[in-house]
Amino acid sequence: MKIEYSLLKTDKNTKARYGKIKTNYGEVETPMFMPVGTRASIKGLTTDQVKQCNSGIILANTYHLWLRPGEDVINHAGGLHKFMNYNGPILTDSGGFQVFSLAKNKEKDITEEGVHFKSHIDGKKLLLTPEKSIAIQNKLDSDIAMSFDECPPASASYQYLKNSIERTIRWAKRGKAVHSNPNQALFGIVQGGAYEDLRKFSAVETVKLDFDGYSIGGVANDGESKEDMYKAIDYSIPYLPIDKVRYLMGVGDPIDIIEGVIRGVDIFDCVLPTRIARHGQAFTSHGKINLNNAKFIEDFTPIATDCDCYTCKHYTKSYLRHLITVGESLGGSLLSIHNIRFLIKLTEDLRQAIKEDKVLEFRNQFINKYQNKNTD
Amino acid sequence: MKIEYSLLKTDKNTKARYGKIKTNYGEVETPMFMPVGTRASIKGLTTDQVKQCNSGIILANTYHLWLRPGEDVINHAGGLHKFMNYNGPILTDSGGFQVFSLAKNKEKDITEEGVHFKSHIDGKKLLLTPEKSIAIQNKLDSDIAMSFDECPPASASYQYLKNSIERTIRWAKRGKAVHSNPNQALFGIVQGGAYEDLRKFSAVETVKLDFDGYSIGGVANDGESKEDMYKAIDYSIPYLPIDKVRYLMGVGDPIDIIEGVIRGVDIFDCVLPTRIARHGQAFTSHGKINLNNAKFIEDFTPIATDCDCYTCKHYTKSYLRHLITVGESLGGSLLSIHNIRFLIKLTEDLRQAIKEDKVLEFRNQFINKYQNKNTD
Predict the structure, then answer these.
(1) Confidence category of residue B222, pLDDT binned at 50, 70, 90
(2) Which end of chain A lies in a sparser environment, N or C, as judged by fewer CB atoms within 10 Å?
């Protein structure tokens, strides 16, 4: 079966939604943060360690897995779940974002057919089309596949964006036509920058194609402002059906997650928690802290006393700082566990706040604490 | 209390010994392989993951911890066990081996007082003496500390070795005189290369100082032959008391462990299992395999079907190969778990063979399989 979304409760004062998604790998609740396993591995963590963070859906990247080890290897393994030993739902992106951001020397040629580009690994010439992206994802056998879209830069002009959206809709139609995995949902993607009419046009036309869920893209590009991100959400959400999952792509800042939820978004993904972890940064309710800071040399308390993650239950800031400063990879792994758990816990708290119609109070309290008492 | 060693059984046909070591952190059995946590971290693994390999004693490096984070930080944390969250016995080396092998540009000046050298991190001038090494280890609060010794290169002349041993004995005496941690055992180190008279002299004189255990050093230098290693053991063991632990330093090749046990050695340590793991190599009963090999691309079986480690229970060679070839650190961590478990299991099997007086049969069967059916 494909996924089934149930909207169970909407917050009285905002558009925040509490819901459940039934999948072939268990039922998960929304709002939800999805950790990213770019190359079929959430950096440095076993899938048991990820599960211990109370993860629901996790993400994997079509572009990276297409290049290495190749979708056929994963298909022969029995699909991504078996290949990477994750017994929970998996979402694959379309590869579009990576083609636009990673392609060698950013050399790429966008045609109606698809995108010609050079591999970021060996410079080999490649072509990714809507059909190819879906074919790869069908083979990866993720629970949710994404339509192949163009991800225009934040600086794109109105006219460029308009043409791009129209092509992305044609691409979405072509991808849907070849999608053939009966156990895989397919999501459409709404683009349109911070333009109200373009977001509306993109949302309405994409919804006409009747996808299993919808995502809001183009909000996590370099140079995108927070204001534009919130506009992009506000201009898209009214045109998305209430009985389908809404996914804000590439967003993992705690405040952005809260603002997204308030605007009606259900699921989020981002490399942020694992990337900042490898640089020694950890989320706390009082803001981010940097473990490289000398003040933690003899701090024998956990990152956060109110955190239930494995790292906070077993390790001190002093030890984590030591690992990070000497370059032991365990440091990044332990901080990743903490940061992933922090964002998952945040969405758990948001679910509770929705059930109690207290989302605005929760936001205000969280932001006050997070922004004003930044300890580093 | 300090450690207490009990010799429980000797193999009928060899010098192989089965014994137990009582420590403040539990009782452990010998023969035993000790995983190495150079900088208070067994690379890429949580201490729970290490424990899951059925680890007993683990190792940490005095030299590295002295430089970063410093012995005072660890002392203020409550000692090494609390600092790194390992609830089992820990052995610290003396720092000698690292001073001789890592010092910047190998510039070092060996005097009667100690060794003047430059930090491998920042080139800072440092002096490590027998008293300093013991003082650091006292503060680290390991269960077993090692005497500070000179580690001469394999190429050292007879005369150089003789002088070196005499100084190492004077250093051992000085270190013992200042050792002051009532919960920490102190081991002496036998040197002497592959010379029978030097090993005898070193062993007899070191034993006169009455240490809590004895190690055989100078067998894991670059350029040391296997033959010389076995000679070094054979020439030292007869002069070591049977009621004290015997430790062969820096040895982790499976066959060398078996040969060491047969010659009367109890405990071993080596970075080998974790180092080769990061390069994609895994121990199997049929020899080492290299996961980089293309033949594993679609090999959906575990590294070893007869292995009970976490990695073999959860991951395939195909997936591990993918992680190693794309450079995901999880690959090295998972192979480290397997390799550490392999060596620990080997010593468990040796214990059983000693109990059954079947050590020689075990050796022959193991070596036949390991050397003749190397699959890579």
Answers:
(1) confident
(2) N
